[in-house]
Specification:
By secondary structure, the chain is of the alpha+beta class. It has a domain of 176 residues. The protein contains six helices and 16 strands. Strand 10, helix 4 and strand 11 form a beta-alpha-beta unit. Helix 4 packs antiparallel against helix 6. The longest helix has 22 residues. The protein is rod-shaped and about 180 Å long. InterPro entries: Extensin-like_C. This is Extensin family protein. Keywords: Signal. Pfam families: Extensin-like_C.
């Protein structure tokens, strides 16, 4: 009986305490209510470093007017998917602000590039092409370069331009050329007509042009342009005289020059300039300088057959060059 009475007393005491607590309970629930979303913007804050947000935030396109040329800091308003409107003022000194925030389109062949880079043992960080050492010139390259340089040259001299032709057999005894060449230009000085001669005569012409003609002319008329050729190979007798000996023209050893053409269009003509006050000194120097390179040099003072040209041939005489 005592135990049952004690239990009853404890139950009654608990009920009394609970009823007292319920009597002081608030009328409303203590659960906090949801924060009201306000449309008012938070005051901007100044920062000097770029502000980074999570991946769900996308920038609003830059305004087309109002910001260009302004000294004030540009404002970018960013809306978050689960956040209210946030205004952030980014200082103009922050790097990257002047560029567009729109990402560059990904290359179409990015998968191929990535696969190639993963397979390559060496990766190049720079997009610039790597410098390669120049390839050393081989013997084959030198031969090809020499062949290209000599193309159009004859007599083993690059400055003597022309072509090799087949041997010439003359109709008269003593005529003919075993290894003739047809010369068009010698060391930059062209011939007014191709001259068929042998290589010995071609080399003598080059020596005469460089050591005699060019120094004698100098800067007169802008220098030497061409030689007026009026005769070269011809199977005939000397001065076309019947019964005379075969001319050196018939052996490919002679060439006749009637004038020295200059770069300004003027000419030093043997026929009119040999006794002209302005040209005779130059023409006589040119005539005398041919003695040595050529074995025979004939001019207007030799005879009437050479009053209008210089006859030059490479025939050798016992007493040396014959110049008149």
């Amino acid at each position: 009986m005592r135990k049952g009475a004690t239990a009853l007393v404890l139950v009654l005491a608990g009920l009394w305490t609970t009823s007292a607590a319920l009597a002081n309970a608030p009328e409303r629930s203590l659960r906090p209510s949801a924060r009201a979303v306000t449309s008012q913007l938070i005051l901007p804050r100044e920062t000097t470093v770029p502000v980074y947000y999570n991946a769900s935030i996308r920038p609003i396109p830059r305004p087309s007017a109002g910001l260009t040329g302004s000294s004030e800091s540009a404002q970018y308003i960013v809306r978050a998917a689960s956040l209210p409107m946030i205004a952030v003022r980014i200082a103009s000194s922050v790097p990257g602000v002047a560029r567009s925030l729109r990402p560059v389109a990904r290359p179409r062949d990015i998968a191929v590039l990535a696969r190639n880079q993963s397979q390559s043992p060496v990766r190049v960080a720079s997009s610039e092409p790597a410098e390669t050492a120049p390839r050393r010139e081989t013997r084959r390259d030198r031969r090809q370069r020499t062949r290209q340089t000599r193309q159009g040259s004859v007599c083993g001299d690059r400055s003597i331009r022309g072509q090799e032709i087949s041997s010439i057999r003359g109709r008269l005894r003593g005529c003919g050329v075993s290894s003739p060449v047809r010369i068009t230009e010698i060391d930059g000085v062209s011939l007014t007509q191709p001259a068929t001669i042998n290589c010995e005569t071609a080399r003598a012409l080059k020596t005469w042009i460089n050591n005699g003609v060019r120094p004698a002319v100098g800067r007169l008329g802008g220098g030497v342009s061409s030689l007026r050729v009026i005769a070269h190979y011809s199977c005939r007798t000397r001065n076309n005289q019947p019964g005379a000996r075969v001319s050196e023209h018939g052996r490919g050893k002679a060439v006749d020059i009637a004038a020295i053409n200059l770069n300004n269009g003027s000419s030093l003509t043997v026929l009119t300039g040999w006794r002209d006050r302005t040209q005779r000194r130059v023409l006589r120097r040119i005539h005398s300088s041919a003695c040595g390179p050529f074995g025979t040099v004939l001019g207007p003072d030799a005879d009437r057959h050479h009053r209008d040209h210089f006859h030059l041939d490479t025939a050798r005489h016992r007493g040396g060059s014959y110049c008149r």
